[in-house]
Amino acid sequence: MSMPSIDALTIASPARAVPLPAPSTPLKAGMLLGSVAPTAGGVAACVQALGLALQAPALSHHVEIFSLADHDGSLDLSGWGALDVKLSRTTGPRGFGYARGLSTAMAAADLDVLHVHGLWMYPSVAARRWGAARHAPYIVSPHGMLDPWALANSGWKKEIATRLYERAHLTHAACIHALCDPELEAIRAFGLRNPVCVIRNGVSPLTGDAVARPAWRVALPPDARVLLFLGRLTPKKGLTNLIRAWSAFKQRAGTRASAWHLVLAGWGADSYVAGLRSLAADLALGTSVHFIGPQHDAAKEATFDAADAFILPSVSEGLPMAILEAWQHGLPVLMTPQCNLPEGVSHGAAVAVMPDVDSLTASLTDLAAWPPTRLAAMGNAGRALVAQHFSWPAVAQEFSAVYQWICRGGDRPDCIDVW
Fold first, then answer.
1. Strand order of the sheet with strand 196-198?
2. Which pTM does this prediction carry?
3. pLDDT tens column, 223-261
4. Which domains does the chain have, with CATH numbers?
5. What is the helix (H) or strand (E) element at residue 250, kind and residue range?
């Protein structure tokens, strides 16, 4: 039996042509995402930073944020500054996020262009409806959600969503955004022939608010060395293998390993985090593996400042903000090739590791033998790399050029890949 197409059911109000703004007029851009909560991970942080950079005087676009409201209505929007954030209440399963008022809110904004962040939820349906009704372009940033590992995770659900609405949403996008060349390859492998812009993420300037040592660090011995993981606690981050490798490292490296502590900062599904805690306890790592929970804003900066090195053993990523932030704080980084930041290795700011237990164990053993001078040199290289190549104003300039191109035509930006 063939499945019905949601796209066939989304013919709303009669379509109308929208006149293009004059070339000298800044655009009205909308950012659409599933959640603006800090626990939504790096996507919300990227949208916030990009929106502020697009709205800054250098570009002067008007940016409005559209997202889904948390059920408890407790979101703190103070960090979004001058950005206008509109939240729509959801009904039904939060994993899909149906929000009756979302389409109405976007239609009332009279946008020139819509930028969709993320896939597999009702905002994809709302974006397709908006584009069809308004005859206006939208761009989609999958944020790694079309990578092979991501597609295979809960794959049957995503196959249903693809047939019902997601492929139509993606196919009708004026442009798709890839964070890196491997994501571009994944987008093409999914069968999409749209123009694709390849634009990296940026990193926001440090606030300078982190002055006190965090409580978790005060609780460790004064001479402790800290290897930090910070991010969402999910299977794709490779944390089970990391904990197993940490146990093997502690046994193999002897006294060189004794000073090192693994600090896992972040949040995740209760059952998964409980499994990680149980694994660490079963391996008798209770004195050297620490779960410190989510860290945001000044607390996050303090946590980076209190670490000696950073690790991200992921099996799938788009472009991880946590690594850029670690470099910004002068931390040497251990990362897998799946983190899609090879320039970190070529610039001496990172060491490539593989996500299996044996490779992680060997890399951790090497780390414990590095002299302080090597750690400092790698940290300095990371700071320089971020300063030169990952600023949000530069990223916003590239997106502005893409928005102008899909709205007004003209010369194709250099970042665009055309099939």
1. 84-88, 62-68, 28-33, 113-117, 138-141, 175-178, 196-198, 416-417
2. 0.78
3. 999 999 999 999 999 999 999 999 999 999 888 899 999
4. 6-202+392-417 (3.40.50.2000), 215-389 (3.40.50.2000)
5. helix 239-253
